[in-house]
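Researcher: We're teaching a course module on how sequence relates to structure. For the next exercise, students receive a sequence and then see the predicted structure as tokens, so they can try to spot secondary structure elements on their own. Here is the exercise chain.
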Amino acid sequence: MGDCRGIIVGFAMLAGIGLFLVMGCTTAPNSGAKDPLPLPSTSALSHEDQAAIKADMEAAQEELRAGKPAPAPNRTPPLNEPKPPQPSNHASQKTARCESSVPPDWVRQTAPWQAMGQSTVSQEEADRQARLEVVKSLEVKIDGVDRSSQQETSAQGFSYSVSSDVVETVQIGISGLDIVDRYADPCGAHFFALARLDRDRAVNAWGVELENLQARRGELSQHATSLQDQGEALRALGVWYQLLDLDATAEQLDRRLRYLAAQQAKGESRAVLVEQTRRQFESLLASLKLVKVAGDEQRAVIAPQLDAPLVVRAMAGDRTIQNLPIQFRIEAGKAEVDAHSVTDSQGLARATVHHIQAEDREATIIGRVNLEEAFADYPEGLRKRVLARQDQLMARFTMRSPVYHHLAKLRELTDEAVRAKKVAAQHEARGDVLRVLLSLAQLREAQESWARVADHLNGTDSEQRKGLAGPGDAGATHQEIQTVLGSLQVKKISGDQQRAFPGQPLAQPLRMQIVGILSGKEQGVAEIPLQFSFEKGQGEVDRQLRTDAAGHVDAWVRRVEPSEHSVTVVARVALDQLALHLTSSLRDQLARHFDAQAIRFTLIPPATFGDSSPLGKALYDLAYQLAGKVNTSNEVLTVVREFVESRSRRRFAISGRFESGLASALSGFKTLQILEMSPGVTQTKNGPVAQAGAELVGVYERDPAGGVWLSTKLIRLSDHVMEAAAESTIARTAFSDEDLRELGLLQAPPKGIVSSIVPTPSQDQNFHQWVEAFWDLRNPYGFHTELVAERREYRVKEAATFRFRTTRGCYLTVVNIGASGQVNLLLPNRWRPTPQDTLVRSSDGWVSVPSAIEDYQFEVFEPLGTERVKAVCSTRPLRLFENANFKNGLFTFSPTTTGLMLNTTAMRPEEWSEVHTSVITLGADQTETQGLRGLRSRGLVTK
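Model: And here is the predicted structure for the students to work with:
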């Protein structure tokens, strides 16, 4: 078998020349010879070995330049290097192979004072690891722990660092630590080295070094003592720190010598000297201090600067320290101070305080040793130890506030107190309780401040205080504040125990008053903010209000949700919203006083539904909607008229349940007084004659989804005007099987069956009944259309505009039912009289009625209230109302035009559609409606 050293390309730097090394791949019979080891590091080789390496490099360079092998240089093989293998004669062999040689025994086991190192990087790294392993073994044997942290090799020998109890690390040199053998695996980058410690050489070297350290110690100890006697404490501290480092190194060497050559150990352990040096160093460090000498507790005067400078002395025990940098700065107060100073031969440093600004409080000036500058050139370890004691190198001076400022401040506070008394008297004359309290609080603050400033003048010349009249007793003012504050009372005036009706505001506001007593007379307290909220139950109430000039506040409850239990509204004073700027003390006192005076109103909510069936719940919700819209007919005697099917005008069995369910719910709300009688019929029942003032009517019809659409209206009998309306679609699950069978008769008309769109008035039907029948007209089987008003409210002489869109092209008719019950045909009209003028296509999207380019407008006029608008759109052109006359612009219906209401055109349900909406009309200068839908009664206007 042969071996191969594959092509190796590398780059080396030697004597400043860059060389590319190229070695060919050769094969040779197995001669049993070992492969040559990689070259060792030049830093660990002799001059002969380094010369041999240089010769090899020069030969390789000549071979590259000439293109032919250079003669091999003559040199002595390095330590344990075998002869290189001979070239193989098998030139035809294409694949090179190698066999690992048997490693030396020391790779597996080493002798005492020896250690093996290995590396996959280089032979130099293996050498370093071998030496380090010897050092680690030595440290473990000496101290029981591995204390070596780093190592390096130099011309002076091998050095390494160990930890110390005195300084961070101690450098220990070691001699006699040599590499005695090396081995490299020829089949891979795996290097081994054997290091051995020559104990005799190490002991001799350490002994010599220990003697040198001892001699050096005597010099340093004498120098440190001399510097300390001369007052050079900082320099002495630096020398003691050097000596501490030296003693620590000597102690480490002593411990190693005692281990390796115990018979040569002399005298006591070096640890005793280390402790003696440490005490000397710590004693000097602890003796450093900065003391105040003069300038403390001075009082500022009217002058450019303080009378005397601030003086400090730097000390080391009982000796002064000179040339020490001192830094001064203002810690509190307003002034300027000389920032930098240096101690003189007596250890003194001075600073002058100037540009003093007058303040009530005392000023503080700090003097400290500038440690950053004083120890800039010292070792980091020493700087850390000194910085840890910086508090003892600091002095604090106090400068008392100027007398002249206190005198001026007393005069100012006296004037403030006089003004506060005057303002309090003015507010008391006007009965303004809150501002009286504020003025008294300001007076008390001025009196208390006067007393504090006067205390600063204790011990000064009494002549300086002549003519200073006191502003009065703060204790008496405090008692006056407590008297007025204690008289403040939050009262409940009215609005408690009211009954709430569905969706409607309470009939009366929740009225409260806040009062106080001034000069024995009760006064209302104005501008106090109150916050209202539902503490129990739910609803809507004015959340934030303020008391008026008389201390009153009215909170309107706009809605109370139904509940089985009573509802509570709580009112609390909200001082955080108070417009006045109160003193913190007065605000806290008012907050504590008013927190205990929260006012609670108990309200009776609308009743919840008693019938829990699906139909009962649906009728309850419908009655709730209706009751929320009732206004002028509140608590009016009301009859429930027969509920009928919209198209056939027939009465089915479900009609009775609709009537009884709605009557029961409305009775529970206490909104209407339901009578079981016919309209206009009088009745005597254990009392005077009673006559109904309103009637509740309803119509229903089958919904395409299988449910029932139900519409209810409250009609005033005095003028036949609709006061309130509500509608809902009830799901089919709310009905019994019997109801569904009966309601099955209400099917969509079969295709091909046509009927008139406008209902024909019957003989027993008056005009208003016909109008409501027309409004009730629905077509659930028609195509989809939408009608919306541009605004919810319009005022007199404003033009109302609506938007309409459809899913199918159709001809549009728009009808308006006014607040008085009058009916107007808005479209067609004189300006758009023909069917073609009313055509709306699905592709048009939203169209305005009237559009912006029209010559006419729908102007609002009296009477005002709720205006209803209904749109009917058909796929074929037709005159919805025959013989309509547009000579006045719009056609108006009346009881005398009944004959014109006939519509002879009939259409299939899928050929037309119906949609409706409503708006509120107001007077030009009004903020609320008249009649039915008053905004005030709805809680929308509170003024």
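Model: If you want an answer key for the exercise: The two ends are 116 Å apart (CA to CA). The first strand starts at residue 8 and ends at 14.
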